[in-house]
Amino acid sequence: MATSPLPRWAPTPSPSRPLWGPSSAAAASGSSSRLLSPFRAMLEALLRRRSAPTGEAPPPAPPAVDAEAAGAGVGGGIHAGFDGIITDRHPEDDGWREDIRRRDGGGVFITWEDVWVTAVDGRGRTAAILQGVSGSARPGEVLAIMGPSGCGKTTLLDTLAGRLHTNLRSKGDILINGRRQKLAFGTSAYVTQENVLMATLTVREAIYYSAQIQLPDTMPVAEKLARAGDTIQEMGLTGALDTRIGGREAKGISGGQRKRLSICLEILTRPRLLFLDEPTSGVDSAASYHVMSRIAGLAATEGMTIVAVVHQPCSEVFELFHGLCLLAAGQTIYFGPAANAAEFFTSNGYPCPPMRNPSDHFLRTINRDFELESEETRTVYKPSAADEAIETLVNAYKSSNTSENAKKEMHDINEMGGVMLRRNQATFLTKVLVLTRRSFVNMYRDVGYYWLRLGIYISISLCLGTIFYNFGYGYDSIRSRSSMLMFTGGLLTLMAIGGFPSFVEEMKEVIT
Questions:
Q1: How many domains does the chain have?
Q2: Helix residue ranges, H only, 162-254
Q3: Any stretches that span the bilayer, and where are they (predicted)?
Q4: Which domain does 472 fall in, by range?
Q5: What whole-number percentage of the chain has pLDDT above 70?
Q6: Which of 332, 368, 427, 507 is the most buried (most CB within 10 A)?
Q7: Is this prediction's pTM over 0.85?
């Protein structure tokens, strides 16, 4: 559970220059209004209307939250604060759950019970990746999945999101709002660990095209641009709007900015359920804190359910998590409130030393990848210290009150029931037009795809024109013309293969 929205080293924000709120939105209107130049006037007017004083100064909040939402919050126990959130929720309060469920189509409760995932190779051999994992996630909260490398964090995330690989087999109950149902469009979003972006587009263009495709046609253009501008500010990408994304061939934005852009593209629709795979990878500690605080703020203000795989967060980021699912060797070490994890480790003989990051202590205790192997352990099996810690903590969690509370909470969530509402999206014609325009922009800026092939075509045309120049109009010319047509058709067919890499790139972005 989040205890403080600010890191201990952060200074108190100056009242004259708040980072968020109406005054900052008005100050940044010049940059956000440039999202699409033909609509600059509409966006500026919208931002001025949103930043107009209402007679009561609201507390500083992320730009996605207006004054009314900031005053009311998601429920009676959730408050938005500067650059983060302070959560004083009460799980027993049914009014809190019902209030989240009523907001914008209702929140998404997801539970998973006794989930097993096994990998099958070509010879039919199997290996267990997850072994009877159970847990739940609720609206307005951020659930962090942590553990050493290879413990099954991403596998669990893929299983919950329905993106499991074909060579993996899963069994267990995964319920959404107490029933088995597929995730509808706009209800869930998944940010992969690998950034799948088009290198030729700028940050502004990538966000604009994504907004045109994902947001429904019933939403006015000015509102789409305002949503995109708010999301840009939330992820701190205002200074890189006109910079190309770049890739292996050309330098563009940094790796941390790519990760933030990937998150930005997925939260445009404000999905009810958001899956994040390593959102802080490639990001420094300060940027990771600001990114996760924005995400936690969205969870509180929008009633979003967020499940994130985090490798090793800093102490300030760890304080933002409401729930913690700690895995080791495919088993559950701990599942419950993040604030109570240190007490659980202490009560079982593994106290966290003073002045140490709790997440560092957890992972160091259960990481067995770097255990030294002596000659004695090669001949006679002797469990390492990490193996003993894992076995002790797994058994302690199964018999603890924390496990019983988690099971009771899953039962209560499954009894609530509910149906996810499918959100509207852009029409087929709009998608075709936007994707066609984006494809032309991509081809025009890709030197190897467009201009190099144009030069090759011109060279081949000159060669063919020289070879078949002035071959007459007699009967012998028919064979020459047929040869030229056959050669040209075969050449164009083979040269069309050069478009497959760009097609695969766009398909990867759509599938992801």
A1: 2
A2: 203-214, 221-234
A3: 450-472, 484-504
A4: 447-511
A5: 71
A6: 332
A7: no
